[in-house]
Write a structure and sequence with these properties.
alpha/beta; ABC transporter transmembrane region fold; Rossmann fold; 3 domains; 6-stranded mixed sheet; 4-stranded antiparallel sheet; 19 helices; about 60% helix; about 10% strand
């Protein structure tokens, strides 16, 4: 468990500076409110003394009442204004900090999300930031208000009657000691509560994301139990926190009650002796009742500040995380000329874990406009190779070049804008089909626009156009979270549409035709490759097809076969088909599975 420190609040200094005038006026209004509140007992003192003297008139009492009403009006207005300025500023800071956190999360690299769970990140962006907001609003108010009122009240009561006030404040040092002990215990227990909340969020997120798998295996009971366990952990962590409050606040009330008892005994005797007036005693009671709030407020302040420090530490942990993959300070420039090497691998080796190579000494040149296929067993390094091209993982310096420039010298945005990638997991957003495809544009518009022809072309190339008629709202149909309402093949084709709508210079199909039938595969690849050939004023563009299906790879100009991270075979489909290697064996097995009848469009004449 990390050590708690108020230095975490340094993160908020730029926000405090930006809203300093709002905080300034908020605290001015708070001072005015406190002054008005402390003036009321003086009106009560004068009124009681007037009535107890027996020499008074109703005009004097009414005048005092009118004065109290005016002071209460100031008190109400001041209370509204300090809440407006201080709470309003804290809400703005919370919103800006949440936006900053979200923007920073989008800059973090692929490996960050492998180490951190989504539920935990969501808890930090919601529950933790809520605790930070309370610390910089009510936490600060409790500190300023409590300190000022405690000091002012003590000065007033000592000036008014020091002989009665002195014994009444004897319990105060005990209250101070309790507050110090309370703060340390609260911080540790609140951190534990936040961690268990993150665990519970992780469980909920994973359960709902995998709801179809859970239902198909009839494992609802197991996940109900798993959630119940994490929920119980969260309850126990919060109960440990609540128990401290259950002891602290009754003790504070008891000690503050002792001050009232002392005033009653000492002050009452002084009134009987004629040393103190009844009005002074009533005013003293009122001030001591007011003193209870600063004492309890100190507990609230310590609680909120400690909670805020814990939560802000969890948020700062993310904000201080530096992306492992980022653009160089001075990105290089590479000319995009026809006939140049689109992709070049120079002795590329890569490991996720040191010593365990996923890619081993790969050398390969892919010229612009060619179609290259990649085949290999599961775990042979195909997807990792694709990730090195776009720097989703960072290859060693001098090993991967795009148009003659090392990928580590490209600006990330410029590098990735060259590619259109359809990953194995065709992730779709909870939006309409149309909007999911629009995300492939450089600027995804929110509504209709001039991109209509691009949309139609994209869905035609992916053979998604014939499916749109089956949806009740066409391509405006909302497909649910992760494309829940679409079949596997439909999700893959929407993903392909998203990749091709921007006409990328390098298109990568990473096993994204595995869920479609042979006829659809033929239509998609024929149309795509025809559209990406040179002609009609457009340069030829590069296409990389990663697949386990020989029928898809048969459209490639050249094919590489990966075996344990190394290139074991390289050549055209016709050349590899007669070498008797892995490609030839896969072709024979798939031909046998298809009943020995591959159509010409499926590559029968080429394999």
């Amino acid at each position: 468990m990390q050590k708690l420190s108020l230095r975490e609040f340094k993160t908020l200094f730029p926000y405090f500076k930006r809203y300093r005038l709002r905080y300034f006026w908020g605290f001015i209004c708070l001072v005015v409110t406190d002054a008005a509140q402390m003036a009321i007992p003086q009106f009560t003192r004068i009124a009681v003394d007037l009535i107890s003297s027996g020499h008074f008139n109703w005009y004097a009492i009414l005048a005092l009442g009118g004065g109290m009403v005016a002071v209460m009006a100031v008190l109400s207005g001041g209370r509204f204004l300090w809440r407006y300025f201080i709470h309003g500023s804290s809400r703005r800071i919370e919103a800006e900090l949440r936006e900053r956190l979200f923007a920073h999360l989008l800059t973090l690299s692929y490996d960050f999300y492998q180490k951190n769970k989504i539920g935990d990140l969501m808890a930090r962006a919601t529950n933790d930031l809520n605790a930070v907001r309370q610390a910089i609003s009510m936490g600060l108010v409790a500190f300023v208000d409590g300190t000022m009122m405690a000091v002012a009240i003590l000065v007033i009561v000592f000036i008014q009657d020091s002989a009665t006030a002195l014994p009444a404040v004897i319990p105060l040092p005990l209250i101070t000691a309790l507050i110090l002990l309370f703060g340390n215990a609260v911080g540790k227990r609140f951190q534990r509560a936040q961690e268990t909340y993150s665990n519970m969020s992780d469980t909920v997120q994973e359960t709902f994301a995998g709801i179809r798998v859970i239902k198909s295996f009839v494992k609802e009971w197991w996940f109900i139990k798993k959630f119940a366990d994490t929920n119980d952990d969260y309850r126990e962590a919060n109960m440990a926190l609540v128990k401290i409050f259950g002891v602290f606040f009754p003790l504070i009330s008891f000690l503050s009650g002792l001050t009232t008892l002392i005033v009653l005994l000492v002050g009452g005797g002084r009134v009987v002796e004629g040393v103190m007036s009844p009005g002074d005693l009533v005013a003293l009671f009122s001030y001591l009742q007011m003193l209870i709030w600063p004492l309890i407020g100190a507990g609230f302040m310590v609680n909120m500040i400690q909670r805020g420090a814990v939560s802000l530490a969890r948020v700062n942990e993310i904000l201080k995380t530096v992306p492992t993959i980022r653009s160089p300070e001075n990105p290089g420039k590479a000319p995009l000329l026809s006939g140049e090497k689109a992709v070049e691998l120079r002795h590329l080796s890569f490991s996720y874990i040191e010593g365990d190579r996923v890619l081993d000494d790969l050398c390969l040149t892919i010229r612009r406009g060619t179609v290259v296929g990649i085949l290999g067993r599961t775990g042979s390094g195909k997807s990792t190779l694709i990730k090195t091209l776009t720097r989703m993982v960072d290859p060693p310096e001098g090993s991967v070049f795009i148009y003659g420039l090392d990928v580590r010298e490209w600006g990330l945005d410029e590098l990735r804008s060259l590619f259109g990638v359809t990953p194995q997991d065709s992730y779709l957003f909870s939006d309409s089909i149309q909007q999911n495809i629009r995300y492939g544009l450089e600027k995804a518009p929110a509504g209709g626009g001039d991109e209509g022809p691009l949309l139609k072309k994209a869905v035609t190339l992916s053979a998604m156009d014939r499916d749109l008629e089956t949806f009740h709202q066409g391509w405006d149909t909302v497909i649910g979270e992760r494309g829940l309402t679409l079949s596997g093949g439909q999700k893959q084709r929407v993903s392909i549409s998203r990749a091709v709508i921007g006409s990328p210079d390098i298109l990568i199909l990473d096993d994204t035709l595995s869920a479609v039938d042979a006829e659809t595969e033929k239509r998609v690849l024929t149309g795509l490759l025809e559209e990406r050939r040179e002609g009609a004023g457009r340069p030829a563009r590069t296409t990389i097809i990663v697949s386990h299906r020989v029928s898809a790879l048969s459209y490639a100009d050249q094919i590489i076969v990966l075996e344990k991270g190394r290139i074991s075979e390289y050549g055209s489909p016709q050349e590899l088909a007669v070498r008797g290697g892995f490609y030839a064996r896969m072709a024979a097995l798939q031909q046998l599975a298809a009943g020995g009848r591959l159509t010409e469009g499926e590559g029968g004449n080429r394999v």
